[in-house]
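Incident log, structure service

09:12 report received: a user says their structure output differs between two submissions of the same chain.
09:20 pulled the input from the user's history:
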Amino acid sequence: MSLKIYGVLKSRASRNVWLLNDLDKPYELVPIVQTYRLKDPNAADAPVHTQSAEFRRINPNGHIPTLTDGALTLHESLAINLYIAKKFGGPLAPKDVAEDGEMTMWALWAATEVETHSLNLLMHTAQLPEAERDPAVAAAAREGLQQPLAVLSNALTTGGGFLVGRRFTVADINTCEVCRYAQRSSDVIDAFPAVKTWMEACQARPAFAKMWADRAAEPDPA
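09:34 re-ran on a clean worker, output below:
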């Protein structure tokens, strides 16, 4: 099997696994855990992690996920998904150069306009230990999401409930996964009904459900 995804499901590799599940294409998930999740990354029995020399030879940035497909190596989860979609084709992929441009635009938009705010909201309302949460960071993240979510809502409304081509595509997977971090603060998403409906529809897909169940079952590193 030539196509490999290096990472774990409790990381941005979830985006790639969701897409591959949706495409029903074979792949190998090579477990690489984030170094910060390990009690002692230097222990003799520590699993291969993002700062391991073995993995840094594959991705010198020391981040997951990474894709290898034969001689090709790609980093960055959203770019990996754009590649996977175009490699296999079909309705989730761009049908022409115009749609290719739109899908690339939405990937860059999600990364630059949404992800930092979405992650900050998650970390400072739910994920960090309570003593480490900063209400000011959470409030700034809520405020920072208002304009991009309004843009997203308008695009979905005018696009028939999808981002590109009036159909479900890799652009929806990429953008939905970035927005997912904000879902724990339901009031933020609920304020934009078109976004809420779209996210629920995306996450109702069997491919997402399989990824999410496998993610929940993934053991935590020692």
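09:41 both user submissions now match this output. Likely a transient worker issue. Closing.
09:42 reviewer note: The chain is about 55% helix and 5% strand. The longest strand covers residues 3-6.
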